[in-house]
């Protein structure tokens, strides 16, 4: 992009709700790093979203700082993008309130994630859980984001954000940009290593289902060794082979190749050898990230400064949008 030309705006976030998995890395953060070179990027730590399921306050605070360190350790550069904590910028909750009045209970209750989480947390189906995608729409629309790099599981939420933006613009006049989800072909839907019908998730009860960014080499290798495959012993991606397809997808995301190239690499080899190679490739990528994250966590003051700077940038950018919205909906703002 030429100097001086208006850069496109990118928005995304991760919840500080526990250890990150390699799914979060492959589906989201890995792509953010690339995008920061060309675009104006806002990357948040979505703590407001995280409390829609119960969090222990001390752990939430710790996970927030750890996630900030992870962002930096994965290669996000605070000079190139705004890294901040969602609750530090009040405009998110404020815009969410306005957007709530343009969102129907029916459409919010039809969201797949709401249905899944309601089933999983049947004792805590709170209003925030249902409002989750509207808050996400507020996040995205506040910055007039053009693109939202996420994994496949968040596509439906970005589509709702688009619908809400269009609805607002139709009712009150052109205000929001209609965002596009940005979903990579490879790595955007990493599945559980134990049950590839499910996505790999931070909160899976089976300890072998997810590989965490914090897992040491032995743990990574062990989890991949135990990953479910099938009885065919042929390494190719296909719908009938969800376990092997998932491993190929993980390999391609971590080795930086396509799934087709990965299939060629492993042609004629056995599952044991394949699983070991996938594990080693993942562990090799994680090792420097873990070392850097550890180093950064020993300097909490530095991390706090980065988050403060990011929040200031985010605050400035989003304040303009919010006052425009308040004016459009008819809130009195002084004579
Ligand atoms: P979270 O923390 O659940 O997920 C963060 C990102 O990781 C992606 N992801 C995956 N990608 C591939 N395979 C997987 N198994 C996998 N699991 C998770 C998610 O798609 C997501 O991109 N609601 C968002 C956080 C958020 C947000 C936003 C995102 C809050 N506000 C505004 C974009 C724009 C979420 O899912 O967080």
Q: What features would you highlight for this structure?
A:
about 55% helix; binds tryptophanyl-5'AMP; single chain; Rossmann fold; globular; 5 strands; two-stranded parallel ribbon; mainly alpha; about 325 residues
What would you note in describing this structure?
This protein has 335 residues and is mainly α. The chain has a domain at 9-188 and 300-329: Rossmann fold. 54% of the residues lie in helices and 7% in strands. The protein has a 3-stranded parallel sheet. Residues 11-15, 23-24, 26-28, 46, 49, 136, 139-140, 148, 150-151, 153-154, 188-190, 199-200 line the site of tryptophanyl-5'AMP. Tryptophanyl-5'AMP binds next to strand 1, helix 1 and helix 7.
**Structure ligands:** tryptophanyl-5'AMP
Classify the helix fraction into a percent range: 40-55%
The CATH homologous superfamily of one domain = HUPs
Report the sheet with the most strands, covering strand number, pairing sense and barrel closure.
3 strands, parallel
Strand order of the largest sheet: 1-2-3
Quickly give the structural class.
mainly alpha
Radius of gyration equals 21 Å
**What is the CA-CA span between the terminal residues?**
42 Å
Mean pLDDT: 96
Task: Give me the CATH fold name of one domain.
Answer: Rossmann fold
Q: How are helices and strands ordered from N to C? A: EHEHHEHHHHEHEHHHHH
Corresponding CATH architecture of one domain = 3-Layer(aba) Sandwich
How many helices does DSSP assign?
Answer: 13
Give the C-level CATH assignment of one domain: Alpha Beta
Proportion of residues in β-strands: 5-15%
- Low-confidence region ranges: none
Total beta-strand segments:
5
Q: What characteristic shape results from the CA principal axes?
A: globular
């Amino acid at each position: 992009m030429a100097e001086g030309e208006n850069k496109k705006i990118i928005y995304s976030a991760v919840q500080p709700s526990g250890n990150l998995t390699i799914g979060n890395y492959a589906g989201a953060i890995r792509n953010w790093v690339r995008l920061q070179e060309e675009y104006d990027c806002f990357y948040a730590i979505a703590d407001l979203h995280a409390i829609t399921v119960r969090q222990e306050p001390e752990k939430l605070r710790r996970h927030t700082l750890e996630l900030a360190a992870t962002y930096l350790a994965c290669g996000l550069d605070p000079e190139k993008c705004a890294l901040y904590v969602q609750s530090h910028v009040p405009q998110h909750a404020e815009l969410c309130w306005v957007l709530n009045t343009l969102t129907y209970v029916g459409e919010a209750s039809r969201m797949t994630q709401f249905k899944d989480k309601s089933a999983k947390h049947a004792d805590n189906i709170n209003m925030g859980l249902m409002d989750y995608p509207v808050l996400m729409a507020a996040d995205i629309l506040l910055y007039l984001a053009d693109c939202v790099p996420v994994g496949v599981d968040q596509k439906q939420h970005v589509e709702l954000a688009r619908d809400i933006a269009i609805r607002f613009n139709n009712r009150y006049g052109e205000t929001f940009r209609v965002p596009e989800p940005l979903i990579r072909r490879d790595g955007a839907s990493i599945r559980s290593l134990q049950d590839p019908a499910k996505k790999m998730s931070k909160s899976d009860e089976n300890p072998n289902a997810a590989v965490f960014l914090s897992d040491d080499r032995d743990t990574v290798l062990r989890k991949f060794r135990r990953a479910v495959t099938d009885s065919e012993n042929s390494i190719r991606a296909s719908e009938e082979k969800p376990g092997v397809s998932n491993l190929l997808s993980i390999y391609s995301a971590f080795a930086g190749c396509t799934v087709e190239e990965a299939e060629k690499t492993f042609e004629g080899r056995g599952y044991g050898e394949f699983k070991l190679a996938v594990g080693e490739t993942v562990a090799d990528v994680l090792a420097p990230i873990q070392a850097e994250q550890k180093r950064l966590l020993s300097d909490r003051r530095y991390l706090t400064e980065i988050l403060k700077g990011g929040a200031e940038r985010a605050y400035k950018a989003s304040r303009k949008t919010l006052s425009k919205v308040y004016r459009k909906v008819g809130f009195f703002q002084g004579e």
